[in-house]
C-alpha cells in the first residue's frame, strides 16, 4: 500500500517545502485528502504547523479514578473502574439505544450508546474489569454516562492513564465526519512521531528565555499536547502565551516606531486666537481636570513634530466632544483644517449643531458633509475645502470618499471609532503626503489588556472624571409584572417635563420578530400615553434617513416626550432633558451596550433613571449582566466584567470576531503575562529598534514571516 506521505515524496513535480511544518496537512499519516478537506474547512488546519498549533482547550487528569458513589452531574470528565453486569438494547423494531449497567464496589451507573450499538453490543464483555471515561449527565433523574470511552484494564496503555488527556476543539461537522477530539489527538501523535523537534527553531531571544525561566519552544510544543504533569503543562502554557502576546506587541510597537520615524507631523507650535477666544469667552463651564490633562497631552503631541496617533477613552458624557473641538481650534490656529468623522448621520449632525452653538460668533467656517448632502451643496463644500475656506468639516463616511480633498488637513478626529473599519481609518491617514494628526475617540471603555492589544500602536488618553454635578443614574431591574408601575413612573416624569427613551432590541437574525415587537410596543405606548398630553416619537432602522432625522429632531427639541427606538440611538446622541431610559428585553443586550444606552440619560442636572425590563426566565449570565448594571455606573468596571463574561472576541468594539486571533492566550485571564510581554517588547525595541543585533536574528525572521502571512494582521492595526 502506498501511503499519501509516500506518494508525496515520490512525486517530483511537487516542490517540497523547506520547512517540515509547512507541509500540507493531507500528507500527514492518518489524514489523506478527504479528511484533509475537513481539517482545512472546519478547523483551519492547513499545514503540519497549524495542527501543532491547534492547542488543547482542556486537559483531564487521567490519574484520578472516582467511585460510582461520588459521581454527580456537575462533574467534568471522570474515570471509573468496574465491571459490566448487564447489557440491554432498547427500541421497538430496531435498537435505538444500548444501556449497560456498570458496577464497582460502591454502586451502579448506566452507560448509554445511541450510535454504534451493534458493534458495542458485540464488544462489551461481562466480568472483565474496565476503565470508563466520560462526562456524567443527568437524564430522567438518573445519572448516566453517554458514549463513554471504554478500556479493558489489563490492556490499558501506560501513557494514557498516567497523564493529562488533552481535549481539542472540533466542530459539529468535523465530528460527524470522524474528526473529534480523540482523532485530533491521534494525529498529534502521528505528527510527533515524524517531527524532529530539533527542527523547531527557537523564536525568542535566549536572554529573555533565561530571564523569565521559560522552557524552549520545542519543549513547550511537546508538553502542550503531551504533558506529563500539571507543572510541565503550566510551563508550556506560559511560554506559548508569552510568545503569542509578545509578538502581537512587537508588531504593534514596530508599527508605531515606523510611523514616528517615517512620518513627520505637522507642528502645531502655538496656542492662538481661536483657542484663546474660545477658552475665555465662549466656554460655558470649567473644564474638568481630566479634560485639561487630556488637552495637554494632545497639545504636547501635536507640537512635537511627530504625527499624533492618540486614542481618547472616556465614559459616556465625560465631555469628549469639547476636547475634540478645542483640539481642532488648535489646528486652525496653526493654519490647518480639521475634520471630525462620526459613525451616523444623526451624530454627525449633532456634532455640527453642538460645534456651531459652542463657537457662536467665532469666525470659523464649519460645514457638514454626509450621504444626504445635496449635490449642489456638496460641490460647493468640496470647492471650499480645496480653497481652504472651510476650517472644520464634520461628516460621516462621506468625508473619506476620494473626491473629498482638503487643502491643508491638520487634524482628524474619529468619534466612536469602533464603528469605522480599520480600512477606513487607514484611508484617512493617507489623504495627504504629510499625515494629519489623528485623535480616535471612544466611549466604550476598553479594558486595559484589550486596549493594549487592539490599540497597542496608539497612545492612550483617558478622561476618568465626569463633569461636576452629574448624578449617579439610578438603575433598577423590573420583571414584566411591574409594567403598570413603570407606566405610572413615566407619566410622573413627563409631568415634571422630563423626556423618556424606550429602547427595543433589533438583532438581525430575528429582525422581523423584533420589528413586530417594536411596533406593538409603540402601539401600546401610544395607547397608554395618548395625545395631546403625550407625544411619542419613533426611530428604527427601517425608516428612511429623512424620517428618522425628523423624529429625532422633534425629540431633541423637546417637541415629543417619549422616544421609542431601537439601538440606533445607542451612540452619542445628547438630550440633556431626557431623564429616563427604559430598556425592553434588557436580557438580550450585552453589557457594554446596556451601559452605552444608559449613558443617553443623566446628562442634565436632574436625577436620571434606567429601567431594565425583562421576562421572568433569565440565564445565569443575563442575570449577572443585569446585576452589574444595577450595582455600578462605572464604565471600566462594566467593561472588565463584560470581557470576563463574553471573552474578547465578542467585546463590543471588536465584534469582527477573532480580530485578536489568539490561539492560546486569554486577554481576560492573562493580563499579567500581557504586561510582561509588552514590557519585554518595549525594552527590546529600545535597545535594538531595527532588530540588527545577532541576538535578535530569530525575532527578526519571525516578524518577517508574520508579515508574509498578513491575513490576520490587516484586520488589527
Ligand atoms: P461624550 O464624552 O459622551 O461625547 P459629550 O461631549 O457629549 O460627552 O458631553 C456630554 C455633555 O456634558 C454635553 O452636554 C457637554 O456640553 C457637557 N460638558 C462637557 N464638558 C463639560 C464640563 N467640563 N462641565 C460641564 N459640562 C460639560
Ligand atoms: Mg460623544
| Biggest β-sheet description | 7 strands, mixed
End-to-end Cα distance: 49 Å
Kindly state the percentage of residues in helix.
Answer: 40-55%
Number of strands: 22
**Gross morphology:** globular
Record the strand order, biggest sheet.
6-7-4-3-2-5-8
Binned strand content:
15-25%
Number of helices: 25
Give unreliable regions as ranges.
1-15, 649-659, 710-717
| Overall pLDDT metric | 85
Overall description:
By secondary structure, this protein is an alpha/beta fold. The strands form 4 sheets. Strands 6-7-4-3-2-5-8 form a 7-stranded mixed beta sheet. Strands 12-13-11-14-15-10-16 form a 7-stranded parallel beta sheet, sandwiched between helices. A 6-stranded parallel beta sheet has the order 17-22-21-18-20-19, sandwiched between helices. It is globular and about 95 Å long. Residues 1-15, 649-659 and 710-717 have low confidence and may be disordered. Adenosine-5'-diphosphate (ADP) binds next to α13.
What is the structure about, briefly put?
By secondary structure, this protein is α/β, with parallel strands linked by helices.
